[in-house]
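F.,

This is the one I mentioned.
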């Protein structure tokens, strides 16, 4: 990639020039791409201060003006999508299709909130306590400065796409990108600035989570976090001490249920995407497949054949199906889960090997059977290209085992009919369920809320919730021609006795 781009993006960082730098590497090869300055606490404090001042003017602008900037940004993303995908692939090692998912998320988010944001933020009238004599109006005030702590696996979708509704709501944003993927975020933020977003309103501060992340939590007015459940717990505690809100999408151990009568050819194809998109480094990826015994053997044969046909490699085009893992730590974790399972009696039906011939962090898409609860991969999130198949007696057992987890993020259901699939979906304890699809349908339904139950998270992104969570509802109640004090000449005792029948009468009115 052109080194001048990295130089240009580096100038967008809200970090003092005096800070030390660290290298950022191309995941496919392990070679250095560029260096990035390492932010410290004073950089965060300064960025938040600038953002807070800029936010006052930004929130005063009409919602339609903010929406227009998002529309211009969307057009710029379309124009520069290939460049964005290049840098995302370079920093993450994902296949081109995975990088394109991030582009689609940007386009969907920007369009939805540009179109719906002004309407959602419009003050709404609610019934006052006394008809005609009182009115109540609910307004949505921006929270102020939103902190976003973003992960490496979807560095754009899980940073800028979360910032878009926050900006639409009138907030400022300070982002800490993952240390591995800062330029993916900067490449997109540059387009926001080009679209007309004030520079001080959106700051990017790279650095260690223990330093920059902690400083963001200590200084922001609301936190959006995507990452591990363990880190999410810690951040929620810190936010709780400050009495600020947090929205967090955390880990998952997502199930797929396949019943007799399902189209096994379609399931096998979709299951490859469900399990191995982004090399399985996706919190919504399927890691457990429960299939009725009557069709388990047939499904397994078709699925293993489909997995064996997956093309694995490093390519900045759409010529491969699956890319690399993101780091040495990811490779070690994935290989550790597979090796532990095999040592305890599991069988590898496909994959199960690292591929150093393709690059330093490649690992084959892997299918296991015979997995038991004493194996590390049975209940803990692998976050890699590993899935286990479990034959079950019937739908009842499938639902029970799917729900037998502390996680509750995503699920996939394939049944003989849409009605049966939807009925099964309603019994699952997770935030999104995809019927006759893997994971993309629920996530891409941008008007519907997306998030987790259990230890898979709190709060929601997307939909009305994804914008209004960044606001404080404010009720403005106005009295017109009436007083709650006793009328002239009436004692307070008699006035208080008269209130109850008046309230009863009001509650009997239509619409009350």
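My design for it:
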């Amino acid at each position: 990639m052109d080194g001048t781009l990295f130089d240009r993006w580096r100038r967008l960082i809200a970090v003092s020039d005096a800070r030390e730098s660290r290298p950022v590497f191309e995941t496919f090869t392990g070679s250095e791409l560029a260096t990035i300055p390492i932010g410290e606490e004073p950089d965060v404090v300064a960025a938040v201060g600038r953002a807070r001042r800029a936010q006052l003017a930004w929130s005063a602008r009409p919602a339609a003006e903010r929406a227009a900037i998002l529309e211009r940004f969307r057009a710029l993303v379309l124009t520069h999508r290939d460049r964005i995908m290049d840098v995302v692939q370079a920093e993450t090692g994902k296949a081109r299709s995975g990088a394109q998912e991030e582009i689609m998320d940007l386009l969907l988010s920007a369009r939805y909130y540009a179109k719906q944001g002004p309407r959602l933020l419009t003050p709404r009238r609610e019934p006052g306590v006394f008809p005609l004599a009182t009115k109540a109006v609910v307004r949505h005030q921006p929270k102020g400065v939103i902190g976003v702590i973003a992960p490496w696996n979807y560095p754009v979708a899980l940073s800028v796409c979360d910032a878009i509704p926050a900006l639409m709501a009138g907030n400022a944003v300070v982002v800490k990108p993952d240390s591995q993927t800062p330029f993916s975020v900067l490449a997109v933020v540059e387009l926001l600035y080009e679209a007309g977003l004030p520079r001080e309103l959106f700051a990017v501060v790279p650095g260690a989570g223990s330093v920059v992340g902690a400083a963001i939590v200590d200084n922001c007015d609301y936190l959006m976090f995507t990452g591990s459940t363990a880190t999410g717990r810690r951040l929620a505690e810190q936010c709780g001490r400050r009495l600020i809100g947090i929205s967090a999408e955390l880990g998952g151990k997502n199930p797929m249920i396949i019943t007799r009568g399902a189209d096994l050819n379609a399931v096998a194809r979709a299951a490859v995407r469900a399990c191995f998109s982004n090399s399985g480094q996706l919190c919504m990826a399927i890691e457990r497949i429960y299939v009725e015994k009557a069709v388990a053997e047939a499904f397994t044969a078709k699925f293993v054949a489909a997995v064996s046909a997956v093309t694995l490699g490093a390519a900045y085009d759409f010529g491969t199906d699956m890319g690399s893992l993101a780091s040495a730590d990811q490779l070690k974790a994935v290989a550790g889960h597979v090796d532990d399972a095999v040592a305890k009696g599991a069988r590898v039906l496909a994959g199960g090997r690292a591929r150093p011939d393709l690059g330093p962090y490649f690992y084959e898409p892997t299918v296991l059977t015979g997995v038991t609860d004493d194996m590390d991969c049975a209940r803990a999130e692998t976050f890699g290209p590993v899935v286990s198949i479990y034959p079950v007696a019937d739908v009842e057992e499938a639902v029970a085992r799917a729900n037998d987890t502390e996680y509750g993020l995503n699920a996939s259901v394939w049944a003989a009919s849409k009605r049966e699939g939807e009925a099964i979906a309603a019994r699952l304890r997770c935030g999104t369920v995809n019927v006759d699809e893997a994971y993309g349908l629920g996530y891409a339904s941008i008007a519907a809320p997306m998030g987790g139950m259990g230890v898979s998270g709190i709060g929601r992104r997307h939909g009305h919730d994804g914008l209004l969570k960044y606001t404080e509802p404010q009720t403005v109640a106005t009295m017109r021609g009436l007083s709650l004090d006793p009328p002239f000449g009436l004692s307070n005792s008699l006035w208080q006795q008269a209130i109850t029948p008046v309230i009863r009468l009001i509650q009997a009115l239509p619409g009350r």
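The mean pLDDT is 95.

Talk soon.
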